[in-house]
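User: We ran a pulldown and think these components assemble together. Before we commit to crystallization trials, I'd like a predicted model of the whole complex to look at. Sequences follow.
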Amino acid sequence: MMTARFLPVAMVVTVFALTFLATFRLGGGWVWDIGNGLGFLAVAGLAIQMFPAARTGIRQRHELLGYWVLALAFAHGFWLLAVDGVVRFYLMPGAPFYMWAGLVALIVLSALALMSHMPERRHWHKSRAAFRRLHRALSVGVIAATGLHVTLSGFYLSRGYQVALFVLLLGTAALAPWWMAPGRPARALQAPVAVFLSCGGLAGVLFVLIRNAAP
Amino acid sequence: MKPVLATLFLAGLAMVLFRMPWTDPEASRSVRFPGEEPVLAMTFHHNAHFTVACATCHHEFVDGTTGPPCINCHVTDPTVAHRLETQFHTLCRDCHAELASDGETSGPTRRCIACHLPDNAF
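Assistant: Here's a predicted model for the assembly, 337 residues in total across the polymer chains.
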């Protein structure tokens, strides 16, 4: 039986462990790896968000973690734009597809947060059922765009099997609302945000340290 | 919620459209090589690459000709100009990344600004 703490720890560990299956010494330098550590943390948070919450107070955790994922995704982008003056050319015409996929993921994630925020939600959705349908569809879209962004940029996940496992992980998470509890609200698996952040912070530090200071 | 997100996206747009004041002014596209195409600058030092065989990069040496510097052809020749980024990232970045994966000293693997500033010497 999974406990509420298990999910965030397992997800953070799995996502970061995947990047270390091969080429664990390969980094882009300290500042570059910090930026992408933030990105991988956002991916882990996103995957956790796909696991359904029970109807009780647990849902507030889902909402809170959602803002953290959004903040991490923005931090990932802003950090890289700020520390490297050339990155902005990868958000201009002619940039590779995976950069546009990342931008789409960020925009749809922002829309998702905006349309679920409580007073506004009623304005956007006629019924609870309509809200849930759209919320799930958009979140699967965010996962797909994020998956393309990470796999096609092909740096930290440089081997085919790493990409395959990563896609499997994202797919399992994206379909969690369906395989976990078809037709009814699931058990309370939603992650305590504090567990996610402390475990994620530690994983991020290790990610940067190993790639830059390993002998 | 709306104003926060709007501010973030506008700030992001500004960071894409305008060079941030703390970044190098040379980190930009301009007409640096023959031809009209503005491109990013390139950092390259032969003395950091003395271990690499000349022909790895100088494919134009193979038939005995010492042509013009790479970029003269690669920015102007329409058969390769559109592949400038792919071809050079594959040549330069992938060699660095492979060496780095093996834990060896290498050049920049990803950080753009490490390769895209003018070096004014080669």
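Chain B has four helices and no strands. That may be worth checking against your pulldown data before setting up trials.

User: Thanks, that helps.
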